[in-house]
Design goal:
heterodimer, A: alpha+beta, Serine Threonine Protein Phosphatase 5, Tetratricopeptide repeat, SH3 type barrels, 3 domains, 5-stranded antiparallel sheet, two-stranded antiparallel sheet, 15% strand, globular, B: alpha+beta, Immunoglobulin-like, 4 domains, 9 helices, 32 strands
């Protein structure tokens, strides 16, 4: 009987939770975090994200706080996931960057980065500096500006204006193309979701996507890996210079 | 000689000044139907003993009064003692625990009261037949029935029991383990050193010193034994689970009367004895150790038992460079030795020293108890108001079966600037140096959560257009289409503008000829004024169309400069100017006498010549 009452109570509680608006949940979760009830706070932040019709930049702080709650609750991989997601939405967030770095220091695996061509690294850094929507809108605005400058070039009677129009339009075209390329690249990253975080405490990567495969190397919770392909409950991952197959349920895509 | 005589008198004086000790003494245990002696002793000469009525005991004899005194010189110091004893012989009537109330006595006119005495009366021995049988079976099987029996020749019995205060304890909770020897009907002389004790692995051991072994009577399994505790120790289990304590063995030396009947009367009379060694085995036992429950508080200091904590701060208001002492006293019973010193989180700017720990523990059969005093010394180096956070001390309460956290109050420290403080303000003028310090990192943690207001449906959502959607391409397409349309419109207009000029240019000659024809007609009609006007208009119109000069800018200077720009022959320019001026003059000043025919011919000739030029 007591159990039944408990279940009823829980149902009631969850109903109440669902009835609450995201803003109320946000306030309640922040209070829970302040009081040190990290598990409750994490549950409430997750509820906000689940109730969102579309995840936009506005949800970056929710992911950030969720990451904090997970971290304080000792769930390292979930914290890293949340920080990564927060940074996907708002790459300029310094606090999220700091906390992600802090959380990454707690990871066991020390991945020696493969030597990447410096230009490629620059390009990636540039790409990750701004979110997708900003790149997209910049591209559109620069494209429009280019068209205006072209018209100026074509029809202005003043030679100076025509010259300026010509050069500015070329610069705008280049910048717009770069912005578009970055946006497209980010879109590709977000749609493919090739990056993932190991969620299981310890997982052995195998040489083939089955149980009998030779064990190649060991990964620990929180390590970021790149997924190449998925095959029958296993994914082919790459991390640093290593490549192997691990079960799909041991990681979560960012 | 008088000197010698005086001494005892002095001694008596000193003695009288001492405390009067008047004590009742009785054996702790007696047996029903057996007389025992009960006595009062007093260390002064006394009289008028008023003993209470012995209601629970049979009075047999007494009081017999005896006196003893002794004087001794040790290293020139004289000590003397005097004792007076009143002895009663009593006998217990029934078993149970009885108390004898205090008695009173008069010493030099004052009445003193003795202590009360508690006596446990044990039942009489049961028939020895069964007892010896049970003893023999126990010996034969050597089972863990709690005793190893030596059945002596006179139905004597000696064995050792293992006694534990508790068999179910928490980790780190003290248990008392003791070995007790039971003797009845045999003569135990002594124990040899040949003793084997269990090694008590998984326990922390704290041996209890047994100063003077008291023989006690105890009724066990229906028989009265002389008992004595021969070994006693406190054990603190260090791990959970069932811990087995191995059996122990002791070697006892017994006095055995000679079995053989001696023919000598002296032998009979002197009752000759031989010694015999017997190995007594104390059975092993098992202790069930419950692990400490989960949920240890962060401040858990390893304590198991019952504790209290006091804190005392030397001062809350000091000057810089003066020491502050925080004294923490942990009082209680439990595994005092294993307590960790609680950490004090002194504020920044306090130089701290290693705490001084003073232990005052007492180990008794009840466990270890006492106080641990911890003195923390710190010296503030910077002035200001600081908060010394509460010190937490967590322990496991074995009575309540849960963790308890003791906490000191939080102190606010006011640190004033001391006299010798080297700070910028305290320095004499001109001496201006400060020890620079880099920001010291004390710890690292993640940054705090974002507490800004959360607006889920922000305007960025309204502007949210997914990449690669038709809306996005529309945003590229719309400006493109608008620009293309604008381009087409502008170009058309320019083309149209360009056509008007070209057409005018091309039609300039024909228009001029038409006007000249009209002028000729006007001349034939003798309308001179209109003729000149028509001539001027024809030439100006022609030049305007031909040179693409807007009508507004049309005057002689622009025409001349435009013609010069296009490298027209200077004579032709001269002629153009003359025609224009002639036409104007003829029109506004007819008296000049310009012949209309000449002007007509000149104009016609000029237009023809200009037509031939490449303009």
């Amino acid at each position: 009987m007591k159990k039944l009452t408990n279940i009823f109570f829980l149902l009631l509680l969850s109903a109440v939770a669902f009835a609450q608006s995201p803003t109320e949940l946000w306030a309640r979760a922040n209070q829970a975090y302040t009081d040190g009830n990290y598990a409750e706070a994490a549950a409430d932040y997750s509820a906000i994200i689940e109730s969102a019709p579309v995840i936009t930049r506005a949800y970056a702080p929710v992911y950030y706080n969720l990451g904090n709650a997970h971290f304080k609750h000792g769930e390292l991989s979930q914290a890293i996931l949340a920080y990564e997601r927060s940074l996907r939405l708002k790459p300029t967030d310094k606090n999220a960057k700091y906390n992600l770095r802090f959380a990454q220091t707690q990871i066991i695996d020390n991945i020696a980065d493969t030597q990447v061509f410096f230009l490629r690294e620059w390009v990636t850094t540039l790409r990750n500096m701004l979110p997708l929507s900003t790149w997209m809108w910049s591209s559109i605005i620069l494209f429009s500006l280019m068209l205006v400058c072209l018209l100026l070039f074509a029809f202005s009677r003043s030679l100076g204006l025509r010259k300026a129009g010509f050069y500015i339009s070329i610069v705008c075209l280049v910048c717009s193309t770069i912005a578009f390329a970055n946006a497209a690249s980010l879109h590709h990253r977000d749609s493919v979701r090739a990056e993932a975080i190991i969620t299981r405490g310890i997982v052995n990567a195998k040489a083939s996507p089955d149980r009998s495969g030779t064990e190649l190397f060991t990964l620990h919770e929180g390590t970021k890996v790149t997924i190449h392909e998925e095959l029958g409950g296993y994914v082919n991952i790459e991390v640093g210079n290593y490549n192997g197959w691990i079960p799909t349920n041991t990681l979560e895509r960012i | 000689m008088t000197f010698v005589c005086l001494l005892p008198l002095l001694g008596v004086g000193i003695l009288r000044a001492e405390d009067v000790q008047f004590r009742a003494q009785a054996p702790a245990q007696v047996i029903v139907g057996r007389p025992f002696q009960f006595s009062y002793t007093v260390n002064q000469r006394a009289k008028d003993l008023r003993a209470p009525e012995f209601t629970d005991f049979d009075y047999i004899a007494g009081p017999y009064t005896s006196q003893s005194s002794s004087t001794s010189f040790v290293n020139g110091k004289r000590t003397s003692s005097f004792q007076m004893t009143f002895t009663y012989t009593l006998m217990a009537q029934k078993e149970g625990t009885f108390s004898i109330p205090p008695a009173t006595i008069t010493v030099s006119g004052e009445r003193y009261t003795s202590n009360g005495v508690k006596i446990t009366v044990l039942p009489e021995d049961q028939p020895q037949q069964s007892n010896s049988n049970s003893g023999q079976t126990a010996q034969r099987s050597n089972s863990g029935s709690g005793q190893t029996t030596q059945s002596g020749p006179e139905q004597g019995n000696i064995f050792v029991r293992t006694l534990v205060s508790k068999t179910k304890v928490y980790e780190q909770e003290a248990i008392l383990l003791s070995y007790k020897v039971y003797v009845a009907g045999v003569d135990l002389k002594q124990f040899t050193n040949n003793t084997t004790l269990p090694d008590f692995t998984s326990f922390l051991q704290q041996k209890i010193d047994l100063q003077d072994v008291q023989l006690e009577l105890e009724n066990y399994n229906g028989r009265n034994y002389q008992t004595a505790t021969i070994y006693s120790t406190l054990l603190y289990p260090q791990k959970a689970g069932d811990i087995q304590i191995e059996p122990a063995s002791f070697e006892a030396v017994l006095l055995v009367p000679n079995q053989a009947r001696s023919r000598s009367i002296f032998d009979d009379f002197f009752n000759s004895y031989t010694t015999a060694t017997r190995t007594l085995r104390a059975p092993g036992t098992t202790i069930h150790v419950t692990p400490l429950p989960a949920g240890k508080p962060a401040s858990y200091a390893g304590g198991v038992g019952k504790f209290t904590m006091d804190a005392k701060l030397s001062s809350t208001e000091v000057k810089t460079n003066e020491a502050i002492t925080l004294t923490l006293t942990i009082r209680g019973a439990g595994n005092m030795k294993l307590l960790k010193t609680p950490a004090v989180d002194w504020p920044e700017g306090f130089e701290q020293y290693d705490p001084k720990v003073t232990n005052n523990f007492k180990t008794s059969t009840g466990g270890m108890s006492g106080t641990r005093t911890i003195e923390y010394l710190a010296i503030p180096r910077a002035a200001g108001e600081y908060i010394l956070p509460a010190i937490q001390f967590g322990y496991f309460d074995t009575e309540k079966g849960k963790y308890e956290v003791l906490s000191t109050p939080e102190y606010t420290l006011h640190i004033a600037r001391g006299a010798g403080d080297q700070t910028a303000t305290a320095q004499p003028a001109g001496v201006n140096y400060v020890n620079k310090e880099n920001i010291r990192e004390l710890g690292s943690d993640i940054r705090y959560i974002s507490a800004a207001n959360f607006v889920p449906a922000s305007d960025s959502e309204v502007l949210h257009i997914p990449f690669g959607s038709w809306q996005m391409y529309l945003l590229y397409g719309c400006p493109l289409i608008i620009a293309a349309l604008l381009f087409l419109i502008f170009r058309k207009r320019i083309r149209e503008n360009a056509d008007i000029i070209g057409m005018r240019k091309r039609q300039a000659n024909s228009v001029a000829r038409k006007r000249l024809k009209t002028a000729k007609k006007l001349l034939s009609e003798q309308k001179k004024e209109q003729f000149f006007e028509e001539i001027e208009r024809a030439s100006l119109q022609y030049l305007s169309d031909r040179l693409s000069i807007p009508t507004a800018d049309l005057n002689k200077e622009t025409i001349t400069s435009t013609l010069r720009n296009r490298t027209i022959d200077e004579t032709l320019i001269e002629r153009t100017n003359r025609v224009l001026s002639d036409a104007a003059f003829a029109r506004y000043a007819p008296a000049m006498g310009i012949k209309p025919e000449d002007l007509y011919a000149q104009t016609e000739q000029l237009i023809n010549d200009l037509e031939d030029c490449k303009l």
